[in-house]
Amino acid sequence: MKEVQPGIYRKDGKLYTKAASDKKVYGEQHIEFEGETFREWVPGRSKAGAAVMKEVELGLEKDSEVLYLGAASGTTVSHFSDILEKGFVVGVEYSDTVIRQLVELAEHRENIAPVLGDARKPEEYEDMVGAVDVVFQDISQRDQPEIFLKNCRKFLKNGGTALLAVKARSMSSSKTKGEIFEEVKDKVREELDIVEETELDPYEKEHLFLKMKK
Ligand SMILES: C[S@@+](CC[C@H](N)C(=O)[O-])C[C@H]1O[C@@H](n2cnc3c(N)ncnc32)[C@H](O)[C@@H]1O
User: Fold this and answer.
1) Where are the domains of the chain?
2) Cβ of 59: how many Cβ atoms within 10 Å?
3) Nearest alpha-carbon partner for 156 in 176, 186, 183, 136
4) Is 120 in the pocket of ligand 1 (CB under 6 A)?
5) Pick from 95, 152, 169, 178: most CB atoms within 10 A?
6) Residue 93 CA, ligand 1 centroid: distance in Å
């Protein structure tokens, strides 16, 4: 088991995080290694996992404070929670049915704060979120970059890391993915410095993963 990034491990070509709870979250495999339990991080189920498989340094530290937009039921949030041994993750999700599983997950893990809210309206949850080291977004909406920038403006510390998973087909069905990715990059460049850009195939089709600094 080799730690390839803070709190992220690789063994036999698979990714793992150290299980902060014995409970399985999405049917992932748990393995024992030197007396500790590790949870497989399945890249086909998580854009952040896919990005790590494609050698992106996420920039998460074990004590990072993270704002996660589009938390859904907590598949990826659960791995962030494993990584953030001394940090925490605030997960924003606007579907009240989907967030139920995230709320349940947070009952077994102390470093997850679920927030039922619309990421388009960060003012609605600003009382629950302070300045964060990392903003991560995985939201399939036409206005993905605008939602992301609004939150980075409000919550991301200067020098902080901004991670955006862009789903081309949610933004336009008539433009090529290349045109869509260029438009997104032009938009985020107005406020952030792009440090890494990676397409997520074969794990996710027509997805771009951008790592930026404020
Ligand atoms: C692709 S899924 C996220 C999967 C999740 N990131 C994971 O890896 O476990 C996108 C999620 O974003 C949520 N979402 C879409 N628009 C939103 C908005 N404006 N505010 C908050 N959540 C939103 C959807 O309900 C959905 O659960």
Assistant:
1) 44-213
2) 20
3) 136
4) yes
5) 152
6) 6
100: Cβ below 6 Å to ligand 1? no
What is the residue-level pLDDT of the chain in tens, covering all 214 positions? 999 999 999 999 999 999 999 999 999 999 999 999 999 999 999 999 999 999 999 999 999 999 999 999 999 999 999 999 999 999 999 999 999 999 999 999 999 999 999 999 999 999 999 999 999 999 999 999 999 999 999 999 999 999 999 999 888 889 999 999 999 999 999 999 999 999 999 999 999 999 999 9
Ligand 1 atom showing the smallest separation from residue 73 Cα: 9
Buried b (16+ CB within 10 A) or exposed e, 185-203: beebeeebeeebbbbbeeb
Report the CATH architecture of 44-213.
3-Layer(aba) Sandwich (3.40)
Q: Is 69 helix (H, G, I), strand (E, B) or coil?
A: strand
Choice from 94, 125, 166 to test ligand 1 binding pocket (greatest atom count within 8 A of CB): 94
Substitution site in 124, 136, 139, 144 for ligand 1 pocket (most atoms within 8 Å of beta carbon): 139
Query: Is residue 153 within 8 Å of residue 103, measured between CB atoms?
Result: no
> What does pTM read for this prediction?
0.97
